[in-house]
Amino acid sequence: MSRASGVLLHPTSLPGPWGQGDLGPEARRFAAWLGSARQRVWQVLPLTPVDDSGSPYNSPSAFAGSAGLVSLDDLVEQGWLRADDPELAALAAICAERPADRIDHRLIKERREPLVRKAARALLDARGTGRFPSEAFAAFLQAESAWLPDWTRFHALGRERGAPWWSWPAQAAPDPALVAEEEAVQFLFDAQWRRLRAVAAEHGVQIVGDLPIFVSANSAAVWSSPELFLLGEDGLPAVVAGVPPDAFSPTGQMWGMPLYDWARNEADGFAWWCARLSALLRRVDLVRVDHFRGFEAAWHIPADAEDARAGSWVPGPGRVLFDALQRALGGGPLPLIAEDLGVITPAVDALRDAFCLPGMRILQFAFGGEPNHAYLPHTYPERCVVYPGTHDNDTVFGWWAHIGAEERQRVASYLGREVGDPAWDLWRLASESRAELAVVAAQDLLSLGEEARFNVPGMADGNWAWRAAPGALDDHLAGRLAEVTARAHRDGHCA
Q1: 125 is catalytic
Q2: Catalytic hit among 392, 394, 436, 444
Q3: What is the mean pLDDT of residues 28-35?
Q4: Which residues of 429-463 are buried (b: 16+ CB within 10 A; e: fewer)?
Q5: Domain layout of the chain by residue ranges
Q6: Which of 2, 8, 114, 209 would bridge with 284, disulfide CB 3.0–4.6 Å?
């Protein structure tokens, strides 16, 4: 990595007329905007399908693209949707009456995604004509053959039967038409993502993706490969993932996702993990590995426990997994960022450092009173990524509103002056640090308060819903960001 900076903004948070942001015109405009602001990185959250609460970290697929991210504008442009489609007009009318800065996840599932599936059927209906992209479609099916058949069958069965997979008959067979439809949805997602990534590359912007360590119990991976997970005889998780009590929750967090049978994964050379990372790196340039410490040891909670306090640390695969990933990618440096937050031990640090992975530093955590706190900028190694706050934190303005006078004074003392705009003051600290990469959340560029917070860990509802206002990311803001970037000498590329 060379010295660079970037912005954290999930595509769903972009403006637009269809209920949430997507991979279409606004995303391409944002990629160009980043280039004009001298940014070299666009960091996103997982691009996979979300759960009913909108979370991309409890996905039914570790590989598939979210249908909700497929651009309706692009589908109309390409002729797969009619501009005068009454369902499209109805969606536009509903969205026009809703707050432009919030996502209604139920609306996306019930109104928007069916339009994407209608476009997928139109694409399939064009087979045998000159409009059907037969070569590109065949190449996509071949390139993604390691995961696509399992996902499309799982998704089709889920649409037919509704209930979780463990209630399905053992030999349940999906409707071939629904399987083909989901193949087409994934093809459309892939084509739009490639177009967006090409625009980003034209403007010198690389994309940092996100790899959640866990998947949903009701997912294609657990359904198709149950032997890779610690399940009971009923097919349900015997233990579930989470974290012990911490600053976010006095009882810890009980996420509910199944944990891995690492011995079984190792027995087949971590093939599923190698396929997963390889597929993600066909989409992005770098990958933030979520909950990195879980690969050294994870918090195993009995599935019937009341809360996460009943859990215990159980060793993970350690370096043998990352050795396998490195071999699968050709033996070079792993293009990973380790999300090494939380309860971090010397063993976690050693695993990260063994593969020269940059860790993360969060400025909001730095001013608790320790003069050499590991998140204060003067303590940073070059090999790290610094954030004023991430998607799991409050916005900087929201954080500032809730901290006490003593902590505020520590910030001012560190700056050597009074705090004017806390969001930009922390961003300047981050930018001017030794960290190779500095990343700021879009909400903090806009100096927004806690109303713009994206996620509260441990809270099931109300997350993943913030959107930027139309026109908020304007030329003035780009110029201001470019000025800070130039002063901090962050014009390099992360590669």
Answers
A1: no
A2: 392
A3: 98
A4: bbbebebbbbbbbbbbbbebbeebbbbbbbeeeeb
A5: 4-487
A6: 209
